[in-house]
Amino acid sequence: MSTAASRRSPAFRVETALWPQLQAVVAGIAVLSAAALLADLSQQLPLMAWSAVPLLPAAGLFAWRMARIEPRRLQWDGQLWRLGPAGRDEGVVVELQLLFDMGSMLLLRAGRGYRACYLPLARRLVGAEWGSLRATLHAARPAKP
């Protein structure tokens, strides 16, 4: 007889993809933040604030490039999470942490410390594996790497 503790979630893999809409949102927030900073600065140093206005597009471009999501492959083998480049079977064992679950979108943190990366995922980008991914994230107890 199998118990809940002895059952394992089945293996699966998820490919992450480029998400230009998310990049655009991050770039827009960066430009709005920089504009708010300049508006505040214009109260004290108006000449300096106006001379920095041409830097707003540079802030947006920088944020666009920094928000780029590298395509990756996230795999659950039934015991451990692995993360690697998209299109390859090998990947390094990572500790996965669910930060936000908004139903149709997830934000995951893979790795530890300064080597961690963030994986924003959306149901429409993941496809058929979405249910398996969410169920495994909430129920699976990975082995210690």
Low-confidence stretches: none
SS class = alpha+beta
Estimated radius of gyration? 20 Å
Number of strands: 7
Order of helices and strands: EHHHEEEEEEHH
State the distance separating the first and last CA atoms.
28 Å
The chain-level mean pLDDT equals: 84
Q: What portion of the residues fall into strands of 2 or more residues? A: 15-25%
The count of helical stretches stands at 5
Q: Tell me about the largest β-sheet.
A: 4 strands, antiparallel
User: Level of helix content?
Assistant: 25-40%
Shape: elongated
Largest sheet: spatial strand order:
1-2-3-4
Topology:
Elements: E1 12-15, H1 20-44, H2 46-52, H3 56-66, E2 72-76, E3 81-85, E4 92-94, E5 96-101, E6 105-110, E7 117-122, H4 123-126, H5 130-139
Antiparallel strand pairs: 1-2, 2-3, 3-4, 5-6, 6-7
Helix pairs in contact: 1-2, 1-3
Summary, kept brief:
With 145 residues, the protein is of the alpha+beta class. It contains five helices and seven strands. Helix content is 39%, strand content 24%.
Q: What does this 3D model show about the protein?
A:
With 145 residues, this protein is of the alpha+beta class. 39% of the residues lie in helices and 24% in strands. The chain is built from 5 helices and 7 strands; from the N terminus they run E-H-H-H-E-E-E-E-E-E-H-H. It has helices spanning 20-44, 46-52, 56-66, 123-126, 130-139; strands spanning 12-15, 72-76, 81-85, 92-94, 96-101, 105-110, 117-122. It has a 4-stranded antiparallel β-sheet, with helices on one face. Strand 6 and strand 7 (117-122) form a beta hairpin. Helix 1 (20-44) packs antiparallel against helix 2 (46-52) and helix 1 (20-44) packs antiparallel against helix 3. The longest helix has 25 residues, at 20-44. It is elongated and about 65 Å long. It starts with 11 loop residues before the first strand and ends in a 6-residue tail after the last helix.
